[in-house]
Amino acid sequence: MMGTIVTFTVIDADKAQAAAAVRDAADTMQRLADALTIYGTHANSVKDFNASPPGSAVRLGPDAEKVLDTSMTVFRQSHGAFDPALGALDILWGFSIQPPPTAPPSAQAIKRAMANAHCLSHTANGWIRGSAACQLDFGGIAKGYIVDQGIRVLQRHGIRNAIINAGGNLRVLGSHGKRAWHIGIKHPRRSGSILGAIDLKDGESISTSGDYEHFFIYKGKRYHHILNPQTGWPSRGVQSATIVAPTGILSDAWSTALFVLGPAGLPLVARFGMDGLIVDAQGHLHMTPGMRKRFQPVSS
Fold this sequence. Notes:
Elements: E1 6-10, H1 15-36, H2 45-51, E2 57-58, H3 62-77, H4 87-93, H5 107-113, E3 120-123, E4 126-129, H6 142-156, E5 162-166, E6 169-173, E7 181-186, E8 194-200, E9 205-210, E10 215-218, E11 221-224, E12 238-245, H7 248-261, H8 266-271, E13 275-280, E14 285-287, H9 289-294, E15 296-297
Antiparallel strand pairs: 1-5, 2-4, 3-4, 5-6, 6-9, 7-8, 8-15, 9-12, 10-11, 12-13, 13-14
């Protein structure tokens, strides 16, 4: 689902109850994935918006409206490091399209696909895009929102202790018996290894954005899917960025924003009540004070 593997972990519940809850949550999450994607053949309001004439107002579906509202808040708070209007640029790079890219686009093509940083506007009649290059893509935030909704479905079924993990966008319920959920943070350069782990409290979410998720090597240089909205090129200087937040939608969006901002963005993350960790290009770790308190490094 959503181009990744989604796993559900439920403990301390009747097996039939848990199975029904997971089925319902998975169905809900798939419906939302279809409603929020710009890829595939399912019709939705996001695709309608991207195909609309610039300057015309389009009403989004209720879930897309919620995701875009949060996206615009993070856009403002991150000073543009997270931008939901990179759809044309994302399609140009092609990281979510088969076959995957093997070489970067031309500088001229990137320039043509870049929209103005403030190309989205909202009116009483709906959302308006300012140019043809201004296209929505919720790839940096939708997984978190969809995981949040899956958690809500589990709760409605009476599930108290669970995890939903959508390819590194993870949210927990309750605890693992008498212990907190103990979550490992993937090492960005050692496949199958972790940097360390943290304990998550009931309801908390963790997301990691990394240059190892979707990438190719061209002429000895790594090109990955996390684009800098200001340049149109993959963001440099960071291997991975991890955020712990109260909801999945916030941890997902802010892990992308923090990847683009780099270590200089950690005070901003802390100011908004989240914990953050960055692995820079040299493999050095940078953390907010809150993350430093809870991070448990792998013993050497």
